Amino acid sequence: MANSVSIRDLSLSFGAVTVLKDLNLDIHDGEFLVLLGSSGCGKSTLLNCIAGLLEPTEGQIYIKDRNVTWEEPKDRGIGMVFQSYALYPQMTVEKNLSFGLQVAKMPKPDIDKRVARASEILQIGPLLKRKPAELSGGQRQRVAIGRALVRDVDVFLFDEPLSNLDAKLRSELRVEIKRLHQQLKNTMIYVTHDQIEALTLADRIAIMKSGVIQQLDDPIVIYNRPKNLFVAGFIGSPSMNFLRGEISEVDGRPVFTTHGVNFSLAGYQASEPLSAGRKVVLGARPEHIAIDSDVMGGEAHEAVVDIEEPMGADNLLWLKHAGHLMSVRIGGARRYAPGSRVRMAFDMSMASLFDAETEDRI
Amino acid sequence: MANISTLNTTAAGLDAVSGRLGSGPSGARPRKVLSQRNIILYGLLIVAALYYLLPLYVMIVTSMKGMPEIRLGNIFSPPMEITFEPWAKAWASACTGLNCDGLSRGFWNSVRILVPSVVVSIAVASVSGYALANWRFKGSDVFFSILIVGAFIPYQVMIYPIVILLRELGIYGTLTGLIIVHTIFGMPILTLLFRNYFTSLPEELFKAARIDGAGFWQIFLRIMLPMSLPIFVVAMILQVTGIWNDFLFGVVFTRPDSYPMTVQLNNIVNSVQGVKEYNVNMAATLLTGAVPLIVYFVSGRLFVRGIAAGAVKG
Amino acid sequence: MSTRATASAQPGIGAGSGSSSSSGSRAATRRPNQLFRNLNSKIASIPMILVAVCVFLGGTLWTVVYSFTNSKLLPRSSFVGLDQYYRLWDAPRWVISIQNLAIYGVLSLIFSLAIGFLLAALMDQKIRFENTFRTIFLYPFALSFIVTGLVWQWILNPEYGVQSIVRSLGWSTFTFDPLYDSSIVIYGVLIAGLWQGTGLVMCLMLAGLRGIDEDIWKASRVDGIPMWRTYLFIVIPMMRPVFITTLVIIASGIVKVYDLVVAQTSGGPGIASEVPAKYVYDYMFQAQNLGQGFAASTMMLLTVAIIVVPWAYLEFGGKKRG
C-alpha cells in the first residue's frame, strides 16, 4: 500500500518545552487515521505540522512522496477542517467555499463547478447565499468541510471538528464524515480526544501521550490488546480494572497473585515468559469479568456488590474483592442489591498483563 | 446608608412571602423614590455633575456676552443680551502676536495636519499590530516591548533627536515632518490596540485562510480588515482627539504660519498686546474644543472603550 | 484477526524502516534561509522597528549621552561630566519645578484616585441615567490641556471669577486667587488638572468594579456585611491591579504636564508654577541651552523610570507569556 503521508523523525519544541519527539508515522493512501489523546499530548501540534501551520524543529514530512517540510500550506495538497469552523464571517457560504480557489486565480466557471459539486455532496445548496452567522452549528461544520472539499486535495485534516457540537449532532455528523470518507476515499487525518469518535471512525488509531505515539493500530486491537498501561486506561469507558500483584507459580503453572488470592492465568496469551516473582498489573475490562451464571467452569471467587449503576442497556456493578474495587458490565435486566454476594471470574483470554515497572504489555 | 439596600431587599423578600400566603398586602411593593439612600446617592452625583459642567457653562455664557456686561456682571449669570460677535471675531479676526486672522487659520492648519496624520498613523500601526499578532518572527516581540516601554518615556527626552533627524531628512518644519511625528508617538498605543484586537480574533480563521493560500496582505485586506471595523473606529477616535489636542508637537515641529489650532488659541488668549477680550477668548476656546467634543458626544461608548483599551491594557 | 492488525501496525511506528519505496524525492530537505521566511511580515514591520530602535531607544540614549556635554545652540560633543546636572540643581527655577511637580503629583494622585473611585462606586449602584452621568464626568477628558487651562484661568480670574462672586455675595474679604498668588498657584493648576482627568480614573475604576464577580456582592449581603466594609476590605483589595495600572497611567501623565501650565499660568506668577517639562522646552528651544535641556529631560526620564520599572517588574517580571 502506498503511503499518502509520511512523517520522519519529527520533533518540535518551543524553547525548553518539547511538544513532539522523534515522531515517525506512515499513513496509507485512503486511510482514515485518528490521532487520539488528551489535551496537550501533541496531537493538534502534529496536525498543524502536517498542514504547514507550524514549523518543525527537526525532521521531514512527505505528502504523496513529496517532501513538503518547508512548503506553504496551500502547496501541500491538503484541506483542513477546524473545531471552531473558522468560516470567514463577512463572506457568504459561496464566497467561503470559493475564496481559496479565487486566491489561486482559478477561472470562474471551474470555481462554480467545484462549488456546485461540493454543495451537492454535502447538501448545502440552499445555504449558499447565507452568511455563517445565519447557520446552525451543524450547517457551519458542513460548510467548513465543503471548504476543504472544493480544494480537491489528497489529504483531509480534521482538528476536533465535532467538539463544538452538542451530543446528538455530533453523532449525526460522525456518521456523515464516515460516509464522506467511504464516498471520496481520500486520506483523512482526524484529531480528537473523544474515544468513541476514534473507535467508530478510524481505520487505525494513533494514541498519543506527551508527544509520543503510544500505539498505532486497528481500533479493535487497541481496545482488546492495549500495548501499555496508558493505552489500556485511556481507551474504554468505564475504564479497565487494574489489579496490582505479582506472578507466582502453583503446580508449575503461572498464576496472578494479589492480596494473597490467586487467579489462574490459563488462557492468557503472553508474549514473554511469565516468570514467578515478577511484579505485574492485571487489566480486565468490565465486560470481560464474568459473574454468577456467566462463569464457565474453572475457578471462581466470591465478591460483594458495593454499588449498582443501572444504565439502561447495561448494568454496571462495583464489586469488592480482596481489597480491590472492580466494575463489571452485565445485561441491563440483571439486577443486584448492594451487599449481595456473587461469584466472579476473569476471562483471561481477553485480559491484559502489564509489567509493573515498564508498564508494557506482557 | 450602606445597610439600607440590604434592608430593602430583605423587606422585599418578606413581602413576597407574605403576599404568597395571602395574609399581607398583595401586588407590587411601592417603590420609594425618595429613600434616604437615593437622596444621598443622587445628591452627590448631581453636585459632582454640576462641578464638571460648570466650566462648559461658563465658556458658553461668557462667549455670548458683550465686554461691558462681563465687566459688570458675574461669570455665572446668563447673558442679558445674546451676541455672536465674539464668535465671529474669534474665528476671523482675533490677533495673536503675529497675525490677526483669528482661529480660522489654525483650524485649517489643524485639519491639514489631522487628516493625513490619522490615516498614516492608523495604517502603519494596524499593519504592525497584525504582523505582531499573526506573523511573529524572531525578535518581533523585542521590538514591540521597546515600543511599549517607549510609550512611558517623556516626549521631551526624544524630541530633540527627532528634530535633528527631520532636519537631516530636510522635512523639519513641514507638514510631512509633523505627520511622521504623530505617527511615531501614536504608534505604541495604536499598535498595542491593534495587536490585542487581532490576537483576540480566532486563530483558526487565520489558519484557514493560510490553507486557502492567502498571503500576508491578502489575509489582512480580505479577512482581517472586514472584521475590524470597530477597532478602527476606536483608533480613529483616539487619534482624532489626540492629534487635535496636541500642543507640544505643534509648537516644536511647525512654523508659525502653520501652527495648529491649539497653539493659535493659546497665542490669542495669552497674547499680551491690547485689551483682554474675555468673551472672544472663551468663544475661541469653545471653538477649539468643539471638534473633540463633537467626536466625544457622537461616539459615546466607543470613546470610553478606546481610552479603556488604551489605558488598561498598557 | 487481531494478529493481522498487530502486524500492520509495526511499519507505521517503527522508525520508518519499512516503506522507503521511492527514493528520488524522498531526500531530506534543509531548513530554508530564516531571513526570507515570513518576509512580508518583516517588511511590514520596518516602520515599527525603526521607531522602536532609532527613535525610542536611539533617541533616548542620544539625549542621555548629550546631557553630559556643554551643548549650547547646537549639540556639541565636548563632554563636561556632570556639570549640567550641578547647574541644573543649582537653578532655583528647576528646584521650584521639581517641588511643583512633587506637590502636583502627590495631590493629583491622591485626589484623582479618591474622587475617581468614589464617583465609580456611586455610578455602580445601578443608578438611572448612568450614561448621562458618565458622559458629563468624562467630557473634560476629550478637551485639550490648552482648553482646560484657559477655561480655569477665566474661572479663577480674581476680578470676575469665583473670588469676585463670593465677595459680591457679601463676604467682602474672601480671597481666592490662586493664579496670582505664587504660594498657592500650583493648587489652581491642580484644580484644572483634576477636572480634566478624574473622568478617566472614574471610567477605569468603574470597569474594575464591573469586573468583580456579582457573587461577591451576593455573598457579602447574605453575610450581612455593610456595604462600606465590603468596599474597603473586599472590593478594593480585589481591584489592586486596576489601582496599580491607573496609578502608573496617571503618574506617567503627571511627569509630562506641560500644556496645562503653559495655557493657564505660563509658569507664573514669576516662576511660581514652573514644571520640569516646561523647563526642558524653554531651555532647548528658547534659551538655546541644549545641555541644560538634555540634563533636565534625563532627570524626567529618571523620574518615570522610578515609577514604571518597579511596576513593570511586578506586572510582567517572572511570568512569561507567549
What does this structure look like?
The complex is a heterotrimer of chains A (362), B (314) and C (322). Chain A is an alpha+beta fold and 362 residues long. Chain A has two domains: 3-228, P-loop containing nucleotide triphosphate hydrolases (Rossmann fold, 3-Layer(aba) Sandwich), CATH 3.40.50; 241-355, Beta Barrel (OB fold (Dihydrolipoamide Acetyltransferase, E2P)). Chain A has helices at 43-51, 93-103, 108-122, 137-150, 167-184, 195-201, 219-224, 229-234, and strands at residues 3-14, 17-28, 32-36, 58-63, 66-67, 78-81, 155-159, 187-192, 204-209, 212-217, 241-250, 253-258, 261-264, 279-284, 289-291, 301-310, 314-321, 324-331, 341-346, 352-355. A six-stranded mixed beta sheet of chain A has the order 6-7-8-3-9-10, with helices on both faces. Chain A has a five-stranded antiparallel beta sheet with strand order 13-12-11-14-20. A five-stranded antiparallel beta sheet of chain A has the order 15-19-16-17-18, with no helix packed on it. The longest helix of chain A has 18 residues, at 167-184. The radius of gyration of chain A is 25 Å and the shape is elongated. The mean pLDDT of chain A is 89. With 314 residues, chain B is an all-alpha fold. Chain B has a domain at 104-312: MetI-like fold (Orthogonal Bundle). Helices cover 74% and strands 0% of the residues of chain B. Chain B has helices spanning 2-21, 36-63, 67-72, 85-92, 104-134, 140-150, 155-169, 175-200, 203-211, 216-227, 229-245, 248-253, 261-269, 278-299, 301-312. The longest helix of chain B is centred in the middle third of the chain and has 31 residues, at 104-134. Chain B is globular and about 75 Å long. The two termini of chain B are 36 Å apart. Residues 1-24 of chain B have low confidence and may be disordered. The two termini of chain C are 48 Å apart. With 322 residues, chain C is mostly helical. Mean pLDDT of chain C is 83; it is low at 1-25. Chain C has one domain: MetI-like fold. The chains are: A alpha+beta (362), B mainly alpha (314), C mainly alpha (322). Chains B and C meet through helix 1, helix 2, helix 5, helix 6 and helix 7 of B and helix 2, helix 3, helix 5, helix 6 and helix 7 of C.
